[in-house]
Structures are given as structure tokens and as C-alpha cells.
Amino acid sequence: MKKLFLLALSVLGLIHTSAAQTAAPAPAPTPQYRPAYHFSPAAHWMNDPNGMVYYQGTYHLFFQYYPDGMVWGPMHWGHATSADLVSWKEQPIALYPDSLGYIFSGSAVVDAKNTTGFGKNGQVPLVAIFTHHDPKGEKKGTDTFQNQSLAYSLDAGKTWTKYAGNPVLKNPGIHDFRDPKVSWNEVAKKWVMTLATKDRITFFSSPNLKEWTKESEFGQKLGAHGGVWECPDLFPMTLNGKTYWVLLVNLNPGGPNGGSGTQYFVGNFDGKTFTPLTTDTKWADYGPDDYAGVTFANTGNRRIFLGWMSNWEYANQVPTAPWRNATTVPRELGLQQVGAQLYLTSQPAKEVARLFPAATTLKDVVVKKEIDLTPRLKNVGDKFQLKISTRQLASFSVVLANGKGEAVVIGYDKPTNKYYIDRTKAGRTDFSPKFAGRHTAPRLAKTTEADLTLLVDATSVEVFADKGLTVMSELFFPTQPLSKLKLQATGNFTVQELSYANLAPKPSSSAAGLGGSK
User: Which residue range or ranges hold the Glycosyl hydrolase family 32 C-terminal domain (predicted)?
Assistant: First the structure.
């Protein structure tokens, strides 16, 4: 759903007009921009990951999907499945719009206790909780056009039936009332819904997912408030034997580098009220291209995060076809204490490492102004993993370039103590005046040694610094592949270890060229 609603109405007008008249010519396909190990649909528009759940050996990824165009339109729930989090198979659409409205974002749970009564003859129901968005009500100017509804599956997520009693949580008169993230609270013995409600989060509880009671509100005057709060998530994490609760809150605009962003709070939750440890604004990802991310349900002690790799400032304009947008890699979340602060860490899930089995390792690489690593690493491509570690961090940069002078620069600036990604000269920027730029992130670690992991996939780079304390995600669109790799430094800089690995080729039996789908 993630959009500014006035913009969305305008887009819808264009969609309906074009459907009634002659359709615009389809843009030329851009297979060179197709990600290889990030999920993207075979065709058409996608945004928020939805309903992510693990069940009977299968990861289910649902997502906001418009099957009739490459811009935002009437929302459906697309569906993809994976056994390993990195190789996805696109499935038939799971949920279609109906008389109650479009199918906006939400979550899915395994109702193991059959609290809903949907399960029959011992079948365990999967239950999707989502926002019904009524475009007619929105157009009339009402404040009750978003309500929460249910659908259930009795065949492990293959097919879905909408609950006849929808909606189960009616809007009390809040213009933005959406994105239910639901989980079972074992202490309270009830379901807890974390709901985005305009400029705050509202918590509801239920014994059966059908009847909901308001518990509390959080955040009206805390955190970043550049735009509407959206796509929340609430989950427990343990550090040094103590349990804390993490609350993710996406907002647009108001991100740390413009447009969309994901902030978080660490605190305590008693089944009714969330209490933060501090009121500092913290960001799960400082790059411009990670939004609407939430975690998979039913994964035990693992907290696996997946985000939408785009930004509402230009998501409808990025130069890809016949699809638009993709997800981040799956990320394993953790907690780390730095001084008096607790931070959320994010690193590639362990399954991602299997994509890069054969690495070339260089020891004690000394950088004096610039060193071109392309000849030493051989076969440098545009889909790879790069790991760097140093015992004495100083100003330096990694340059991904091509023969046309286009480059993405990823680096660290010691005077400001910030990491950065500069895509100003990385290729196409003409599709949006808000795309080109140099984006920064604070270094949160206090150590002199540092480590960086870069995941590059044709048109994106994800940077995980200092064991995931600082994370940045960034898109770019070169006119030819960035297949040169250089290191630069303002003074002498030594990399103790550098590891480079190209993406392993897919077996011919499963390769389909659809970037993480098959």
C-alpha cells in the first residue's frame, strides 16, 4: 500500500483512463537489470512483502502486486515460495480485490491451536490478516475506508478462502488504519496485532483473530515523523540471557536519506503496552532502498527480515521492464550493545552464503591512493559478494565501475565517521530528479577494526558494516555492467583480508532468468 494517497489517486486515474483508451506502448525489456538472487516477479508491479510465514519446510512470501501494469494499481497479494530463502518460485495470485476493496499489506500466522475454528478434521489453518482498502470510500473522503480482514488456507498456503465475517476489525475513524502484523503472545495467551494508525502504532489483542480489543497506543510524539507510520512489526529478541522487544516502524516520507525508511525501537512489551528503553531515533537501514520490511512468522528463535528494495520517491519510475521492484536479501536480525545503547543488527541470512561457494582471498592489500583489483580477482562480474576487514579503519572507498566512466562508490569517511554510497555517476538517473545522490550512515561501532560485507546484484548493493550495526541498501542503473573493482584511499590503508566470490551459476534444470524466481 505504501504510497502518498493523493499520488495514488492520481495514479489510479491514469490507470483507469489508459484501460479505457489505447494502452501506452510497453517499454523495452531490461534483462540486464534483472536481479539474480533477490526476488522479483516475472512481470508487473510489486511493493511491500506481506504475510511472510514458514510452514512445513516452505517459506511463503506474499507481496503487494498489481498484475495489470508496472505502476502501482489495485492491490492483490502475489505469492512466491522457497525452501531455502534464496531460490523463489512464483505462485498463482493468493488474494484478489473484492467488494470490500483492494488487498493491502498484512501478515500471516500458523493457527496451531485452531483458535479461529477454521481448521477441520485436524487440519492446521494458515491465517492471513490484511487491510481491506475501499477505494470508493477513499474517493468520497471518508476516514473509514481501511479495515482489517482475514483469509485462511487449509492446504499449506496453496489456496485461500476469505472469511465470511470480514472485516474483523472495523475502522473507528482513522484515515490511515492498516498493515496488521499479528503474532501469538505466549505469556498473555492471546494474539497481538501491531497496527499502523496514522502517526502512531496501536496494539490490539484477540483470543481467536476474529474479535479484537484495543490495548494501547505508542509513538505519537516519539521517533521520526516525516510521514505516515506504516508496516510495523513487534517481536522479542534475547541478548545476554535477557529478553527485549523490538518494534519496527516504517514511514514515508521521512527516511534518513529522503523518502522511505525503516526505524525501530528497543524496549519491553507486557502483552498490552510497549515501553521503549530510549527515545532515540534509530534506523534499521540507512540507505534509500529498503522499505516496508518485516519478519517471517513461525521461524522459532530466528528473526528473518525481508524488505522492499525501492523508495516511494521513484518506485513507479525505475527503468526496468517487464517488472518493477524487488526485495532485499533475507536478513538475520540480532541485538548488540554499544556503550549504553542497544542496537538492532542485520546481516545476510546464512542461506545467502551458499550462493557464493568459491571465493578468492587476498591478504594484506595496501592501498596507496588507488588499486585496481580487477586483474587480481579475474572474472569480476556484477553479481558477487565482497568481504573486507581491517584492523585500522581509515577513509577509503570501494569503486564499482565500467568502461564508460560510470561508477558506484561505497566508502567510509573518517572525519565525519560516516559510511556512504554515492550513485551520482552510476548510470541512468533521468527517470527521477530525486534518484542521484550521495547517501550517508553513521558508524555506530566504537572499535578501530572494521568489517564490511557487500552484496552486489546487477543493479543493487547492500552494505553490512561492523557485523551489521550499520546497513545501507542502494539501487543503481548503469548503461553497461559494473565489472571493474577498485579500492581507493586518501592515505595508506591496509585491508587485512579481502574475499571476493561471484554468484554461483544456477543448475540448468532450474535456471529461468527471473532473478530469484524460477
Answer: 381-499
The residues assigned a catalytic role are 48
Q: CA 8, CA 58: separation in Å to the nearest integer? A: 34
Angstrom CA distances, 109 to 127, 202, 478, stand at 5, 19, 40
Number of Cβ within 10 Å of residue 511's Cβ equals 11
Residue 475 belongs to a domain with what CATH number?
A: 2.60.120.560
Same-domain pairing of 369 and 340: no
| Number of alpha helices (DSSP H) and beta strands (DSSP E) in the chain | 4, 32
List pLDDT tens digits, range 90-135.
Answer: 999 999 999 999 999 999 999 999 999 999 999 999 999 999 999 9
Regarding whether 465 and 345 lie in a shared domain, the answer is no
Backbone angles phi, psi at 348, to 5 degrees: -55, 135
Q: Is the dihedral of CA 440, 441, 447, 452 positive or negative?
A: negative
Asked if 218 and 273 sit in the same domain, the reply is: yes
Note the pTM of the prediction, 2 decimals: 0.94
* Distance set, CA 30 to CA 40, 293, 484 (Å): 13, 26, 21
Of 321, 350, 379, which residue constitutes the final position of a domain?
A: 350
**Per the domain annotation, does 27 fall within a domain?**
no
Distance, in Å, from the CA atom of 474 to the CA atom of 409, rounded to the nearest integer, reads: 11
pLDDT in tens, 392-431: 999 999 999 999 999 999 999 999 999 999 999 999 999 9
Q: For residue 244, what is the domain's CATH number?
A: 2.115.10.20
Question: Are residues 339 and 315 both part of a single domain?
Answer: yes
| pLDDT tens column, 276-323 | 999 999 999 999 999 999 999 999 999 999 999 999 999 999 999 999
Confirm if 436 and 429 have CB atoms less than 8 A apart: yes
In sequence order, what DSSP letters do the residues of 396-436 get, joined into one string? EEEEEE-TTS-EEEEEEETTTTEEEEE-TTSS--TT-TTT-
Count Cβ atoms below 10 Å from residue 117 Cβ, excluding itself. 12
Residue 95's domain comprises 36-350
